[in-house]
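Dear Dr. K.,

Following up on our conversation at the group meeting, I've run the structure prediction for Polycystic kidney disease protein 1-like 2 from Meganyctiphanes norvegica. I'm pasting the input sequence below exactly as I used it, so you can double-check it against your construct before we proceed with anything downstream. Let me know if the numbering doesn't match what you have in your notebook.
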Amino acid sequence: QVDRLIPVAGKEQSTEFKHLFNTTTTKSISDGHLWFSVFLRPPRSRFTRCQRVVSCFALLYLSMLVNMMWYERVPDQPSNGLNVGPFTLTLEQVGVGIMSNLIVFPVSFLIIIFFRKARPKNLRKSRIEEALERSKAKRSINGSQVSLTISEQSSSTISSDIKNDKKKARKKKFTLPWWFQIIGWLLALICMGVSSFFLTLYGIQLGNNKTTKWFISLCFSFFSSLLFVQPFKIFITAMFISCIFKSGNLDEDDADEDEEDPCLEQDEDWLHAKADNGYRYKSIDRKRMDCKKIDEETLKKLREKRRKENEMWNIIIEIFTYSMFLWIFMLISYGQRDPNIYFHVYQKAFLHIG
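The predicted structure tokens came back this morning:
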């Protein structure tokens, strides 16, 4: 059998670098990365998936417009750059990308803040009270309804005590009024509409060839930002928080703040009541926590499955690492060579012109 002792994590364990780095990285990918968060959105965040999609499109349209406005500033004969397949990355393109990001950032940041920090217009009903109502309905159907009503005076007293305890237990987060969501929607729609209009005009003005080159450059910039710039930003942020701030309080859950406080009976108490020095828990019957024992044959299969999973991930990481090394090596070795070099070699070796 498996016997595992799991000690309670103290302040040192919760603020160590490895724990903070892994926690911050995971949270930043699922919530901070705007494009990935559309699919990996935390379920208890008030920043909905629909709002994230609108923010992504507003950012994309603004980036397209600003890139096209700056594209005419790039000379027809750019300086020598790094050749990556059919693409050429020059200093001018890097400068255009940096200036475009600086121009787009304030507007996209405002849209995201309006959506993320805006409070709901009406708080949701407490999930505890909803569960009690469902339980009450089931008991009434079975003919054994139990009275769950309390007087209005005691209810208001208990709810006010709960609110006071909540104010003491945690700091109030910065939020915006609910109507900032409307401002965020209007700002995002205006950005997409205005960008679409001017993109059409610029596309007609630039012509087909230059527009095609701009579009290829934009796609390259977009995917490089999606797969390299954003993950690099997440890595730097995680390193900064883990090394300097060392704060274990990284929870930004909005679900508890967006619902009403439950009302307790006079003879009821919180199971996990907050004490002055940490948390105190009521004693729980160990018989209710006993898990069903697993037979030895099942444990062997689970161990073997886990071992194969670890080997699989090690092989995948190793293949990816060697592939990236080979790609960089080939890029440095052959990226700057003239494609006509083999023609000149054969011409000098076998042909004698003149």
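Two things stood out to me. The radius of gyration is 30 Å. Residues 296-334 form the longest helix (39 residues).

Best regards,
J.T.
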